[in-house]
User: Fold these one by one.
Assistant:
Number 1:
Amino acid sequence: MTAPVIAAGGGRAALRRNFWRGVWRVLKRKPSRMVGMVIVLGFAFMGVFGPMFYPDPLPRDTAALYAPPSWEHPFGTDFEGTDVLALLVTGSRYVLLTALVTAVITVVVGAAIGLFAGFRRGRWDTVLMRITDMKLTIPGLPLLLVLSTIWKFTSALEMGLVLGLLGWGGVARAVRSQTLSLRERGFIEAARGLGLSTTHIIGRELLPSMAPFVAMNMLIAVTGAVYAQVGLFFLGVLPFEANNWGVMLNLAVFGGGAMSSPAALPYLMAPLLAILLLTLGIVLVVDAMDEIFNPRLREE
Amino acid sequence: MTMFARRLAGHLARGLVMVLVVTTVSFFVIRSVPGDPMAARYEKLVEQGMSPTAAQRAVEVLYGFAPTGSLWQQYVDYMSGLLRLDLGQSLMVPGVGVSTVLFSAAKWTVLPVLAGTLLSFLIGVVMGVYAAIRRSGRLGDVLAISGSLLHGVPQYVLALLLGAVFTTLIPILPTSGTADIMFEPGFNAGYIGSLIEYATLPVLTYALASYGGWILAMKSSVVTVLGDDFILAAELRGIKRGIVFRYVARNAILPLFTILALSLGMLFGGAIFIERIFNYPGLGLMLIDGINNRDYALMGGAFLLITVAIVVANIVADLFYSVIDPRVRSGEGAR
């Protein structure tokens, strides 16, 4: 996921090759980072190809409602006798697609606003940052809840769009402060002295130096988006049209009574473990990226 | 002092604008919600054979008011009501003002949030210092990774896990409510004990959810201070390690107070999941109930109160920081 961002900013081929060699070295040094990469790639694989392994209406086994975990059903079955693992895998596409859309929008809008405000400074900066501050202050989840009464977030794309448009505030602020410090450096001064256009300076000089930072923010935005939408479905304020992890959580707790009887417990645990694993993977990858992009942190 | 007053005035003005924007937006968003419970009631009564005027009267009696006039007129009414702290009538609890409903719910949010946050702050800060000092050792690694993980996992996952363990697998803690109905509410040992028992899971979840953030913040703050010149100077002068450590801790903790005030505000928003899972009747649960019942007034009121809490927390954080850290007061260094 990070590769396109970096490659687009990287420029020359040799630089890119060196970069990938550096990535490989950092990954190799600590096994935990490899684990993180494997987990994240595994989830990506599950989202893209997972649903293909199952028939479209999932088979129901009405003789085994809330069946306990077994070889046939590793996480048991739900209230209709559908295999929970199958639900988890088919539900992952919606969750991960939304997360991807959200992350892209968050990062593109946030970076654009941050770069523009930081580079132009002056009046534009003041206005944009006031808006950003306001966005950051408005509580996100309650706002989403109120919005969910008018929007129905029917498709994953729509959901991602709304989450992305609500989430760019933090990225904008961070990118702006990076821009403010970068624009005073020599190479930007030189570019300005050469009379290069603003778009050139921002696109070719500023953005590449910030790409790693932006990529990291994008990964963090992915987790944020997963939590937000799973949470919304879990709370039950959105209509259950698609099968996804949040719907599973909601049905397990408020339908199956997983908080009082152990029957629905495996049904509850499957999506929880998936979220925990995804978080772990992303935390480990971000940790590795931190070291790739901040050479000062490296302990040789 | 005038400096302080000017700062305060600026913050208050900005906060008021913020609240004005939020109320305006929420007013119009909420009015555009499809499915009006009062209209539905009215139509049902007419269908049952009541005359339109009688049905209108019946609905007004039931809910205490009826939205009349243009949208603009309603907006002006709403805003002028707001100045008197009158948020309108709740539809879910007929005859009771929204502000009354909300203020009675607020205590169930404020107390657990406060308890959980302070608990995690104390533990997290101490652990953060260890994580910073031992950052190249195994203990530091474990602390840092556990911090990142707990910081990364959403509150509802923690709440559900704790709930599954302590109410389903080992049923030792209650699943919902604020106290056992067996006890008379009041200042008696049984009721207070029951309050604490019922609050254990929500408080524990708040604490665990914010603990990771404290470790990470304190660790990076301590690492920064450790590199400062005055620490090096103190070490070179041969001052005892314990005293050097006091220098470090005192300087490193300053930025954390800002985050403390901010996170207290933010937790009002996050309390929604915990209150829903443990069925704890605070502001978050009110907001969800309001949404599920299409209770405009309650929805708007709960959202407004959560926003005001965050705005106030922001102001307090900034002012507090300028009081405890003299370096901020002198210049524009705070930005």
Number 2:
Amino acid sequence: MTTGVIPRSTRLNRAKRRGVSGVMVALTYLAAALATLPLLFIVIHIVKLGAGAISVDLFTKMPQPVGEAGGGMANAISGTLILIGIAAAVGVPIGIGAGLYLAEHKRTPLANTVRFLSDVLNGIPSIVMGIFAWQLLVRPVGHFSALSGGVALGAMIIPLVTRTTEEMIRIVPNSLREAALALGYQRWRTSLSVILRTAMPGIVTGALVAIARIAGETAPLLFTAFGNQFWSTSLRQPIAALPLQIFTYAISPYDEWHSLAWAGALVLIGIVLIISIAARFATRSRFGAAVD
Amino acid sequence: MDGIERIRGMSGAERETTARVSIVGSDLGDRVYSVMTTAFAVCIPLLLIAIAIEIGRAAWPALHQFGFGFLTSSEWDVPAGKYGAAPAIFGTIVSSFIALLIATPLALGVAIFLSEFAPRWLQQPVAFLVDLLAAIPSVVYGLWGIFVMIPLLREDVVPFLRDTLHLGATPFFAGPAYGPSMLAAGIILAIMALPYISAVSREVLRAVPRSQREAALALGATRWEVIRDAVIPNARSGIIGGVILGLGRALGETMAVTMVIGNRAEISSSLLAPGYTMASLIANEFSEATSDMHLSALMAVGAVLFVITIIVNAIARWLVWSVSVRNEA
């Protein structure tokens, strides 16, 4: 198309359209820059304000009352790890089991219902999960407990584990299943020792991603785990948790607690990051080789 | 291995029968396995039903006593035993609306950038950074909101909006600006909803077939016209679904909002005034509720939140799903 044959007005029009296009493309660049800005902003502040308050004491000492120097968050850090453990023990087996069912019954009415409802479950606010766990496990007993907090968090990871399990099993080649069945394996053995094992690294990744997501949850713990200034010795008693501690310190009027809150935030993000990196590692190391 | 040994000793016809028997799964092991996985799958609907029943049961006394007025009354007076959820419902809707107003254009811009314009080397890092926003715990957003964002709003942003843009005359920016406010909650919710909206939009934009873009380019469309006329119309319902999904997140978000919204049960037209959301109301008062009716009222707020988020999420999923089905066919 030579410019010579195009009437002047059209050429002008084209220049205008090109101009609009250029501006819009530039705006999408701007949007990308603006969207990454808050992250950099937040991370810089957490590192700047948190790093100063990080010390060995933070990981080994108990919280101190206001006015007394030092003190740490040892009980909150261990409490968070315990809560994550309970959540994983509750949520991962149910999630994997339901995922197996979905992968093997692709389009039955029950499978469609379960698939849809697990998406719905995934969208339920964590605070609603919290009052549910309170009503179910705290109210009848009469006191807050680590167990109720762990169950609330565990229920929240079920839908994510279910869906990733289903996805991971679906990308296992069908020939593998056929081969196992042709060798005379029963269906359940094929599923568990051939299909599930092949998909396992992907499922582990999915479970870790789900756990990373609930590791920083606070709302459901407000009235289940409730927090604790001491070492937690029983799962039936209230337990300290890092996010709860950050919340308490953040809304307090004391400067030394504020700086502990920043340090706690840095540690919490560190825990989430470590779990996320572990999730990437789990897929990268074995999955590629297994599917080929 | 026993399976292989057994099959080796069989004739062709026998092998076929064995294979068929395994597939049909008449063995005890298969039956147990089938029952087990079904039981796990049924856990999910059961859990939802249990949530609905338990919360409904606990909310019943309040809903029964206050009836429909529970949703419309704006009097939340604990000592007087009066509970109206209107300020919290109002705050939830307004803060989420502000969040979507800010987050939607940004998230859509990022999604278009990533799926259409970004140079290859930029795609992964930008997508990763935006996704990371979803990994930061809510309580950390709240901490940042209290100590960094609110002072920034109070000292720089609000004076700029009022004095430079002259928005102080509108009812939205009237009154004293303490800091904790509806506006602060809306902004922090925007940051938190952004990664969800952009992730879904990115996916539905990618699902639009290449041929759509090529056809538009062949007709002489500019790069932007391709997006506007050929790509977005195809992905529209999916993008709307993504925005509604972001709305679902914003409606139920608790900690960050509780820490920056100011927690006052009043309806004000000013965005600079403190407010309340349903989630922050529950978070604030639940563990201090002493009377049965107070507790039941909070449960009723939870029930309203539960129902709203279920409806919103169901609509969002359905829209996103409709795009993937259309483009598969």
Number 3:
Amino acid sequence: MSTDDRAAVEAALRGPAVTPPTRAALLARLNARYDRQYFTPAEFGQLRAAAVRLVPHDPAELDLAGLVDDRLHAGRTDGWRYADSLPDGDAYRALLAALPADFATLAPGAQDEALRAVQTRLPRAFEDLLAELVEGFVSHPLTSYRFGYAGFMDAPGWPQVGPNELEDREAQYGR
Amino acid sequence: MAAESRGALPAAPDVLVIGTGAGGAPLLARLAQAGLRVVALEAGERHPPGGIATDEVAQAGLFWMDERLAAGGDPVGFGRNNSGRGVGGSTLHFTAYTPRAHPDDFTLRRDTGQGVDWPFGYDELEPYYDEVEQFIGVSGPAEYPWGGPRTTPYRHPPLPLNGAARLMERACAEVGLRTSPAANAALSRPQEQAGFGVRPACTNRGFCQAGCSTGAKASLDVTYLALAEQHGAVIVDGAQVTALLTDASGRVRGARFVRAGREETLEAGTVVLAAGAIETPRLLLRQNLANSSGQVGRNFMAHVGVQVWGLVEDDLRPYKGIPGGLISEDTHRVDGVVGGYLLQSLGVMPVTYATQFARGTGTWGPALIDHLSRYNHVAGINVLGDCLPYAHNYLELSDELDARGLPKPRVHFTFGENERRMSAHAEALMRDLWARAGARDVWALPRAAHTIGTARMGEDPSSSVIDPVGRAHDTPGLWICDNSTFPSALAVNPALTQMALSLRTADALITHLKETA
């Protein structure tokens, strides 16, 4: 249950095994929501629907489409792009425009078929968008909890680093 | 802004250093220790260990995020990889892997007829390697099985081997490859560091590539830059250089830079450009400086860096332990390839792994989630291999401007036949090793790492930008000290060699200043 997951995450983040800078970053991310500012409502609807198929998640819980919109609105880059690609925002717009206009309401199988087609047609924009969504997904504290990832609880250090040599807080974190 | 509250800069220092990474920092300390008045300008901010989060996204500020354009058949990604920004440069996020180059890395052309020889050899660098390893505190084995002669053992015992390292150790033993704990510039026991205080032993937090939160890793801010400041060097952070100042005679006289939104200038007797193999040629090309050879921006190189990943039954927790714990250099020379490579085990942080998997395999949907959910069982191994210089690999200025209004660099990179053969050789070997380790869902990520070349050193002013000690052939007052100057890529990670070169260039500059005083 999401409420229980969130409570477990918050308890871990407020615990003594997490350093203050790590706690600040992860607590802010746990509850981050974004207002759509960059994409049009129609583009954003396409983006959100595509994001759910590409990196399955609950948008009410993890605002991955909003994260992309927010970055583009703020003009942040990840430091590079393929020279033969359009700037990120334009490349993503072209990708979303290449999906069927009714993409958001298609059956899941038809959505996946449309996504496979744009992965072939616009491989670099597809790769960049996928990587960006994956980053948002994996860096979210709820995902960490569900995957049993405890690397952020490192304030006491890790005296044992061999295979299967887990500290209690590692073995117990996650579901 | 912190930068605005700082006082005026010292007027007309003897030497102005641009960049505080592995090229600029040891030199800055050496010059300050020699009594010279020195100032360093660093585009990025200070990142003291206490402010470092165990989170890759939160640590994006360690990287150069102004957009660069990746062109060619094997485009090199930047940002989270292959860039650095901050007081300490890319050593803030290096994994601290510090193997020495081998004597034969410097003589590839003599030995094979291909590549380019360095204007000096291993014997010239050996005392500097010793000095750097002792000062920054490298942890390594008592007896290192490969490479040139060592006169001094590593200062500290090796760091513990994590899961991937132990798998690689076992698999290599099966096929008769020798392995050793790697040399890593993170402390296996505490060390007193001049100008900083006591640096603690490594806690095996495997987030080196997102910055060290304890000071155990020898990033330059806690080592050479602390020493430099102790001896009076002034380090100005948040100061991005936009141009070099020149006089009517063509001599470089200082730099123009932007700090806290304001443009400033600083004049200096000598300028040392140490901004790295992307920003150094980018700056020079904008003014066509030091370029009578036409070599600025040319011969861009990036190491062969193919990685092989797999899932194992064991719970490995790849976020623990120094990422590159184990090494083999039995592949330093391999049949059918010019040059060679080293093999290393790989720990990995979760976002890095996940985004590489998505980019490298194109997997999405439930299959993606299923794979990523097994992150704790991920085992990695990779290589670092030499790369020949080619005319088709170069950096140029594009017509696109970045957010600061400066032309974006466009970097062309395509592996040659030699790098493709080396990559294939390495991938086959690592797939075999990982099969022996019992890994499933094995996949390979072809990849190039590090930025090298673009302002090469050499004896001949018609084919090189700087002379063998670091002075620009054709531009008085300008020296260059960073990985842009490497004539060839070497079959090892560049940071340790760069630090050794930095001390060597500093000694030459001190001698030069004395002679011309």
Number 4:
Amino acid sequence: MKEKIESLKAAFPHTIPVFTGFTFLGIAYGILMNSKGYGVGWTALMSFIVFTGASQYLAITFLTTAFNPLYALLMTIMVSARHLFYGISLLDKFKGTGALKPYLIFGLCDETFSIVHSSEPPEGVDRNWFMFFITALNHFYWVAGSALGAFLGSMVSFSIEGLDFVLTALFVVTFVEQWKSQENHMPAVIGVTCSALSLLAFGKDGFIIPAMISILVSLTLARGKKDKAASESGVLEEGIE
Amino acid sequence: MKLTTFEIVVIIAMVAFGTMITRFLPFAIFKGKNASNPYIDYLGKVLPYSAMGLLVVYCLKSVDLKGPSHGIPEAASILFIVLLHNWRRSTLLSIGGGTAMYMALVQTLF
């Protein structure tokens, strides 16, 4: 029990930006759901079992147009396809997490990924419970925020226009942090370039899959090129770490 | 609210199922294999940095450079976030400051 409390204490500070972001975004989502006739119950249920902002916003359109479950499934897979990357990135980190693993994977949203990937718990804190509490806290913020939003509904009178930018801000800050922590900027540059070019070529509704394919191809080519040098310096780098 | 309760439940189940496919698939495919595969190991090391770049672009996908604001609020706010973060390196301050600036810009000037 004591070790779990220690893990929770260590995890909480990392989730504060997400707390702020998810509270505001969740409220905005709840207000939107409420305006379409879906109250606290539906909103909380949706946030609890789906737990992905972009698809939930998108799902509002599935819930307000003609019933088409197959379309809902395919669109969701398209929009959430980036989650495939997170899984591959965390294969190693989630190894040996035992009974917590299914929940860690279930709760792997963008924000949780960015924290889990970039933070290590302090000395003496259990790594698995640390990752569990980061996931669970973020999950809780999202459910609570969206339920609150659905509850507040039409009571809100101030303008929340532009509030959704909080997510962009979170990703930009994480990007800058990662940039500073890395000497090799190639993966970051490939990520932005391939995505931007795919967006230009395929438009906002169809660029995710081409972006992911071009990122994978570029990273693979970059590896082939540097393979010889990397296999030597890679060992050296790991030795220093 | 046009759908029946049953239809709503089906839609929510489909959206949840689609999301779970994308989250569980890599772990199902590479179950226990990654340690012995240098290529997957390499992807695991570099992909997070590419994925973050993809996420930033994803958030900005609806920005219309030819539209009335020409993407100026987004560009200015991101520049502000980067400068602010380089200066104080406080995650909360950078996110809060950038969002506040963006809200002020889109609600007043643009």
